[in-house]
Amino acid sequence: MTITARYIASTIAKPLLSAIAIGLLVLLADRLVRLLDITLGKKNSLGIVFEMLTYLVPHYLGLALPAALFLGLLFGFNSLSKNSELDAFMATGIGLHQLVRPVLILAGFFSLLALLIVGWVQPQARYAFRAIVHSVQNVEIFFLAEAGVFMQAGSRTFILDKLSRKNNRFERIFLFEDKKAEGSLTLTSTGGALVEHEGDPRPILRLREGHRLRIDGIVEEEAAAKPLPPHVVGEFNNVDTPIGRIVGTKFRLRGIDHRELSIWELFSLREKPPAKTSKPQMMGELHKRVVTILSIMLLPILAVPFAIGRRRGHRSYRFALAVVILVVYHEVLEQGALLAKLGKASPWFSVWIPFLALAAFSFWQFYSACFTLKPAKLEPTLDWLIDRIERVKTSLQQRLKAA
User: Which of 20, 19, 10, 17 is nearest to 79 (CA)?
Assistant: First the structure.
C-alpha cells in the first residue's frame, strides 16, 4: 500500500470500527433483555444467555458491517474535506477517484466477509439459536416459574407459592391439565420439590399431601341441567408428575426453513426445495443474499459524494440524506424479496431493479463529484434555509432569557 492509501485507510478505520462496536452493542443489548426473560431462573442461565448471544452475532454483524462501512466513509472523507486535505491531494495531481481506490479494495474485502457471514455462518447460527430456544422452552420450563404467576407447560397450567430455587422446593401448588376430549386433571398440594429423573430430561414435580380430581370427559356449558361426566376424587401423600413436554430426543434437522440454508444450498436445491418451503421462497432468499453482498461494493461510490461539500456550508443534511437513502434502499430490498418469496413478483424485477437503480444513482453522483465542476443547485438554498432557522432559534432563546 502507498502512503496515501494507508492514510486514507487509517482515516476511515476509526469511525468504521467505532460504528461496528456501537452497532453490535446496541443490537445485542436490545435482544439481551428478551433473552433474560426466556432464561430467567434456569440452571446456568448466564451461560445460556451468552451462548444465545453468540449465535445472534452473525445475524447482527450482517446488518452492522455495511452500515459501519458507510458511516466510516462518510465521516472519514468528510474529515478530509473539512480539513482541506482533499484540496492538498488534488493540488499534487491525485484526484478523488484515485483516493477511492483503497476504499474499493476495503469494500471488496467486506463483500467477501459478507459472503462468508450471510452465505454460510448466518444460516448455521440461526438454526443453532432456534435449537437452543427449543431446548430452553420445552425441557426446563419449571425454572422459568415465578411465585404467584400462572405458567403454561404444554397442556398444563400451574401456579406455585413461596418458590425457593436454592433447593428447588415450593409451597402450595395448583395444577390443571386439559386433556381435550379425554377430560381434565386437577391437582392441589401443600408443597413439594423438583427432582431429576435419570433418563427423562423433563423436570419431575414431587407433590405431597394433596387432592386430586379427574374428570373423564368434557364439562358442557349447561352443566347444571345435565349430569357431570364420570369423575374421580381422591387424596394422596406423594405423587410424581413430569413438567414440560418433549417434542423429540433432539431438535429437528436443519433446512426446514429456507433462511437456514447456505447460499450454495439455496442454489443447488432451488428446483427441489425442502418439504416445508417453496421455489419462490428459495429464489427470493438467494437473490436477496446475492444483492446484499454486491451492494457493499456500491457504498464507497455512494458515500463519497455526500461526504464532501463546501467548507462553509452545512453538511449535516448531506449525512442525513445519505443515511435516509441507504435505509430506504434496505426497506425496498426487503419488501422486494418478500414479494418474490410470496410468488407475486420475479426476483429479477423486485430485487435487482432497486439494486440497479441505486448503482446508477451512485455512479452518477460519483462522476459528478469527481469529473465535473457543476455547482450543487440545492445546497446554497438549503444552507440559506438552515441559517434562517438558526437565526430564528437564537432570537427566540435570547427573548426567553430576557423574559
Answer: 10
Question: d(Cα 315, Cα 78) in Å, to the nearest integer?
Answer: 9
Do residues 158 and 179 make contact, with C-beta atoms less than 8 angstroms apart?
no
Instruction: Show the cell assigned to 292.
Output: 446484499
CA dist 230 and 290 (Å) reads 63
Segment 279-319, tens digit of pLDDT: 999 999 999 999 999 999 999 999 888 888 655 555 567 77
Per-residue b or e along 248-260, where b marks 16 or more CB atoms closer than 10 Å to that residue's CB? eeebeebbebbeb
Q: Are 65 and 110 in contact (CB under 8 A)?
A: yes
**Per-residue cell: 240:** 410424581
Query: Could you tell me which of 168, 161, 162 has the C-alpha nearest to residue 42?
Result: 168
Radius of gyration of the chain (CA): 31
pLDDT tier for residue 330 given thresholds of 50, 70 and 90: very high
